[in-house]
Amino acid sequence: MPYTVSVLFLVLGWIPLSISMRPLSPDPCDPRSLPKPQALRLDQMTVLINGYAESRIPLLRSIAAAYTTSPSVASVLILWGDPSTPSETLSQLTRNLSVSSAGTAPITVLRQSSDSLNARFLPRPSITTRSVLICDDDVEIDSTSVEFAFKIWASNRNRLVGFFARSHDMDLSRRAWIYTVHPDKYSILLTKFVIMKTESLYEYSCEGGPAMAEARGVVDQMRNCEDILMNFVVAEKVNGGPVLVGAEKARDWGDSRNGGSGQEERAWEVGLSRRSDHRKRRGECIRDFHRILSKMPLRYSYGKVVNSIGEQGLCDKGGKLVLCDHQVTQ
Predict the structure, then answer these.
(1) Of the residues 136, 138, 169, 227, which is catalytic?
(2) How far apart are CA 61 and CA 18, in angstroms?
(3) Could you give the CA distance from residue 195 to residue 240 in angstroms, rounded to a whole number?
(4) Would you put residue 283 in left (φ > 0), alpha (ψ -120 to 50) or beta?
């Protein structure tokens, strides 16, 4: 049974903070329990942060606090995916957030009833916006880029908008779909950071009949690929690809290429992508989804939307090779 917010645990400072462990509705797909689409606000988005590892809590606190300062954020929901985490740990997280949060957007910590990755896409009555920002607990994006991505989504409301792209392709030698990266095109946006319309949560979790239920079962079996399945769902609806946006600063602590020995620097050790067979498993997911759904809806997109062009020429200033419009202090 999916669990969501129902009881206010505490309010500290001037930022509303809560933690919940009781189910609000026995059926998250019951439209009577959800706000009417026309009642959802368009000028802001709800941030859904997927949390799981206790070792990442300091980083999660920093990321969640940063989102509360964004004028485009209505609220932040931390979806805690490890049901075995002690209640006191989540209570302490809530108390710490009251100290570190500098913005006005409320933060709610929600303990999920299971560790299923599908749960991050459950529709929720507490979502009051037409768009949601789905993100991980180990990716930091600068505020300017967050605002820019939301602006781009407002012009592409039916499509996925994000910063991290991958691709599907056909391995002709094996006649099989694979998961890969292309330098000039993409068809998948990762849920490290992606903005989508709120209705997509319902379409993923509640529509599609037995085929989608089986596809969600693959996600549970593989403990992976929920982002790929969401790309399938959205691409089929719009018959088009996602929109890749350029970020000024995008720090991915969960990337296995990170080094160092500090707590944040080693955040990648608990990430799914650290597995040696990560790309192979995601290729299997694409093949399974194609087989189960009897279609390949993924579509390629090309290019990246950037906030500004800026100077591109390099000049020698004071013996330094810099962009020509940069000033060099002597």
Answers:
(1) 227
(2) 14
(3) 16
(4) alpha
Alpha-carbon span 111 to 86, nearest angstrom: 10
pLDDT of 198-250, one tens digit each?
999 999 999 999 999 999 999 999 999 999 999 999 999 999 999 999 999 99
Query: CB of 162 within 8 A of CB of 194?
Result: yes
Long-range CB pairs of 154-159, under 8 A, 24+ apart, other chains included: 154/42, 156/243, 157/130, 157/131, 157/197, 158/197, 158/234, 158/237, 158/238, 159/234, 159/238, 159/240, 159/241, 159/242, 159/243
E runs forming strands in 81-181: 107-111, 129-136, 139-141, 161-162, 165-171, 176-180
Give this prediction's pTM.
0.85
Annotated active-site residue 142? The verdict is no
Name the CA radius of gyration of the chain, rounded: 20
Task: Give yes or no for a contact between 225 and 285, defined as CB atoms under 8 angstroms apart.
Answer: yes
What DSSP string runs through 56-73?
GHHHHHHHHHHHHT-TTE
Q: Which long-range contacts (CB under 8 A, 24 or more apart) does 180-184 make?
A: 180/279, 184/302
